[in-house]
Request: fold
Amino acid sequence: MNKRKIPSIVVLTGAGISAESGIKTFRASDGLWEEHRIEDVASPEGFARDPETVHRFYNLRREHLLSSEIQPNAAHYALAELENALTKLEQDLPDKTLSNYTLVTQNIDDLHERSGSDLVSGNNLLHIHGELLKIRCSQSAQIFPCYEATSPLSVCSCCQQTGNLRPHVVWFGEMPLYMDKIYQALETCDLFMAIGTSGNVYPAAGFFEVAKSSGAHTVELNLEPSINGSKFDEQIYGTASEIVPDYVNTLLKEL
Ligand code: APR
Reply:
């Protein structure tokens, strides 16, 4: 009987993993938050004040995400490969365990999906800050795919009303998604990796501490040290498309 223990892994990604795919980060000197005020485009109050501007902001980002120039990069593909390898190992085990791999992303793009993450299990990729390619009815909370531009005049397909649709994005002051599931994974993981995130936004910025206090090895992979970088057990700095595949290859050899 195969008694090998498959490591439980939680990966947290941020805007830095998608930077080389052509999507702007938030806090770089040319980042999104240099060009837009958070309170205008990423808060419930901003949306209540000027829904048209908020719809336009997300319409432009959606259009850009769907343009042919935006593609997953080697870092996204490496994580998909890691997930596949873990899934295969799990299938070989006689007593099938629950998924040992959780990919938590703060990104609202779909580049993890496009690179093949979450294809096998279909429930271990968690968009904690929502998804750009989805829209939600603020009355019923029903979520719909969204590939087109929207406005306050768009008619919601569940309530048939205008003015009820909003981006399926978690704004400042709102509760991030999947928190129970994420904390459960953090409390039982052996390895926690944070990739391409500056550590400015909680609760995600505090996930490494939960994992660490549960005994996990914590690794930061980023262009530069994040706010809490020195508190991770291991730090690897460079561009995501180089350091993530290298790190994943090392892990795969150990599995
Ligand atoms: N490779 C690796 N890391 C990179 C790269 C790259 N090519 N380019 C940039 N980075 C790093 C930056 O050094 C920075 O530390 O990615 C990080 C991006 O930080 P932020 O712009 O703050 O993005 P993120 O941490 O994802 O922001 C968190 O803030 O406004 C919100 O909701 C938004 O989900 C977002 C949250």
